[in-house]
Amino acid sequence: MRIKNFTLMLMAVLFSAVGFAQKSFSVQKDIAFNRQTKVQTKWVKQNKIGSAFAVNAKGTSSQSASTGRANARAKAAEVVTPPASGDVEYYTLTATASYGQTQNESVTRQIKIVWDADDEDVVYIQGLSYYMPNSFVMGMFNKTGDQVIFSAGQYMGNPGVDLYFGGYGDGTALTDVVADFDEKESSFTFSDAILDNGDPSKIGFYAYMQNVTIVPLDGEPEIPVEIPSDLEYEKYAFTAYDYFDEVDVSGNVNIGIYGEEVYIQGMSNDYPEAWIKGTFENDSTVVFRSGQLLSTEESLYFVAINDNFDVVDQYTLIYDAKTGVFEEGPEAPIINSYKDKIDRSVWQFCYGYEFLPIADGAAVPGVSAISSMNYKVTATMSSSLHLPK
Q1: Residues 60, 206: one domain?
Q2: How many CA atoms are closer than 13 Å to the CA of 152, on its beta-carbon side?
Q3: Global pTM?
Q4: In the prediction, which pLDDT does 295 show?
Q5: Most buried in the list 46, 139, 251, 334, measured by CB within 10 Å?
Q6: Are 206 and 106 in the same domain?
Q7: Are residue 104 and residue 171 in the same domain, yes or no?
Q8: CA distance 374 to 245
Q9: pLDDT tens figures, 305-314
Q10: Cβ neighbourhood burial of 313 (10 Å; 0-12, 13-18, 19+)
Q11: Buried b vs exposed e over 220-238: b needs ≥16 C-beta within 10 Å?
């Protein structure tokens, strides 16, 4: 197998090393690289950060006759949205991903597949983008029903640059992607490399996935924390330190104690309605399991890390029963797209939390007021991706 090199120039976001009294977190090279290669759509749309990429993709959606249904194609710059009337099922996607200087990283995702209720030949599959794991692409079954054809050029979103779906093919142009469908197993197998491409027709990619297989989910799908119907909670004020902005931040959350359980709402700035659940380990220590799902819309997780930036099993709060104050233990929380690793999309990283009860605070959901991200592009770096030709 002959390997073809494809080099991308990426903008590296460099942070100066910092140390804080509360914890010994300092900026590491891999964290800086992670931030510059995947920034989040919400922040970009809100103009809170600049693009981390050196190139902005331009162009119109490529048109191919392979599906025979041009009128049903996704248009450029319009994210594919499954119909609300579709039948939703949960699947597991496995693949290997390559991006920047990383090659063949194992990927496992819980994804949704939406079957079109009005057209049995149409299916919508989530997760076929490395950088936009919550995006959907639309596919159409062939006449024999054993293959699904996904047209190239479908728009997947903008995590700092417009990204388009497509296959690598022979490397000369973005191609439609064909998946073999096993009706008995209800599984999909992809033989081509699937690109996160910067153009709807010309090849110029930021990441790709290979060996993609999609099978029905084994067991029940993950869901966000659900609170007891009779939970009573109070409004708390929090203070913390924003790792990226290097500023103190503050806001409000809701905290409810339910027997040996502790529930906190508002730890995610993007999804303040989400709850996390902890358990009293003893009278003064509350532990929260790392990897709690916050949103199925974005597949976001509450993840605990230590000061070496390793994902750990739990996040700890120290509780003072006399004052009602909760204070952060040795771990720090991040809001992340993966529950078991720090990937290229850390949505939020604040630490040194302290939660203080608000006297006579209204027991209604509050919105946290975490500072927006703000950083400068200071250097460039090149990285090579290798694809089989």
Answers
A1: yes
A2: 27
A3: 0.63
A4: 85
A5: 139
A6: yes
A7: yes
A8: 6
A9: 998 899 999 9
A10: exposed
A11: eeeebbeeeeeeebbbbbb
DSSP letters for 207-267: EEEEEEEEEE-SSPPP------TT--EEEEEEEEEETTTTEEEEEEEEEEEETTEEEEE--
Q: At a CB cut-off of 8 Å and minimum separation 6, what does 143 contact?
A: none
The identity of residue 211, as a single letter, is: N
Instruction: Please state the separation of Cα 312 from the chain's center in Å.
Output: 19
Q: Which residues contact 176 (CB under 8 A, 6 or more apart)?
A: 64, 66, 67, 149, 150, 151, 152, 166, 167
Question: Which residues lie below 8 Å from residue 347, measured CB to CB, with a gap of 6+?
Answer: 40, 42, 268, 270, 300, 334, 335, 336, 337
Spatial separation of the C-alpha atoms in residues 243 and 250, rounded to whole Å: 13
The torsion angles phi and psi of 269, rounded to 5 degrees, stand at: -70, -30
Separation CA 338–CA 233 (nearest Å): 29
pLDDT surpassing 60 at residue 28: no
Cα distance between residue 306 and residue 326, in whole Å? 19
As a whole number of angstroms, the distance between CA 288 and CA 282 comes to: 13
Which domain range does residue 208 map to? 56-221
